[in-house]
Write a structure and sequence with these properties.
The chain is α+β, with helices and mostly antiparallel strands. It has a domain of 156 residues: 2-Layer Sandwich (Gyrase A, domain 2), CATH 3.30.1360.120. Helix content is 18%, strand content 30%. It is built from 6 helices and 15 strands. The protein is globular and about 60 Å long. InterPro entries: CAF17_C, GCVT_N, TrmE/GcvT-like, YgfZ/GCV_T_CS, YgfZ/GcvT. Keywords: Transit peptide.
């Protein structure tokens, strides 16, 4: 069972009798389906609709103390804690940063983790990502002996963005980071912070910039952060890469223009083409309907 620790992940606990309602009123995803058997994926946004941090939400069984754990990017934990405390007001919730005592581990090949790995949960973004677990830091070396780069290579191959690598926190909208494609945004629940902007992008189809999987024709991915170009125009930036594949945040309208003009798409000077995974539902350049809701 290949498993690896993700050293760039932290853990926040949200507990207390108001914990579910508290999060429901703040985060992008619907908390109603989140149970100890089914994790959720969502984010906390600025009022302007930009992502402060995205995270996996795990419900803790009442027998184990109840509440929720947020499997979150470690560098964003201080800002997330600050924002959550700001919104706490008189809500009967407790907020605790468990990052020092906890570790997040993942399956590197999509296979199940052993039941004794800690708090085990399926990655809610895509079944093929497999399982994750939150465990005690003291036990992690006995459980996670694999290489986290193998997990990231699999993630890139599946087309799943990672914050800090593929999009910048505080700068990207949920649609740009594919949260709307990965179950990270509910368009049916009540209000949450930044909802108006997200709903407007959804209903008007104004998300022109998207993270999309790409394949480099030379079999070698360019450097993370390299500029993506077509002709003389910048069309975006390349993020994670592995085994000749990558993820790139691109202006899809400019990609369409480049394709119409016969101009190659380049990342760091290396040619690439777009690849559409099954979970992406919006049309790519050249497909019917492109431009109406890209």
């Amino acid at each position: 069972m290949p498993a690896a620790r993700l050293i760039d992940r932290g853990v926040i606990r949200v507990s207390g009798e108001d914990a579910r309602d508290f999060l429901q009123n703040l985060v992008t995803n619907d908390l109603d389906p989140v149970t100890p058997e089914q994790a959720g994926y969502g984010a906390l946004l600025t009022p302007q609709g930009k992502i402060i941090g995205d995270f996996i939400v795990i419900a803790v069984a009442e027998a184990e103390g109840g509440g929720f754990l947020l499997d979150a990017p470690l560098l964003q934990v201080p800002d997330l804690m600050k924002r959550l405390k700001l919104y706490k007001l008189r809500a009967r919730v407790a907020l605790d940063d468990l990052s020092e005592a906890s570790a997040v581990i993942v399956s590197t090949d999509g296979s199940p983790l052993p039941a004794d790995s800690g708090l085990v949960y399926d990655d809610p973004r895509l079944p093929a990502l497999g399982q994750r677990a939150i465990t005690d830091r003291a036990d992690v070396e006995c459980i996670a002996t694999g290489d986290s780069e193998a997990y990231h290579a699999r993630r890139v191959a599946l087309g799943i963005p990672d914050g800090g690598r593929d999009f910048a926190y505080g700068d990207a909208f949920p649609h740009e980071a594919l949260l709307d494609q990965l179950g990270g945004v509910s368009f049916r629940k009540g209000c949450y912070i930044g909802q108006e902007v997200v709903s407007r992008m959804q209903h008007r189809g104004t998300a022109r910039t998207r993270i999309v999987p790409v394949i480099f024709t030379g079999g070698i991915a360019c450097e993370t952060g390299a500029e993506a170009t077509a002709g003389t125009k910048t069309i975006g930036r390349v993020g994670s890469g592995a085994d000749g594949r990558g993820l790139a945040m691109l202006r899809l309208d400019r990609v369409s223009d480049a394709q119409a003009a016969g101009e190659p798409l380049l990342g760091g000077g290396l040619a690439f083409t777009l690849e559409k995974p099954e979970f992406i539902r919006f049309p790519f350049p050249g497909e019917p309907g492109f431009g109406a809701a890209a």
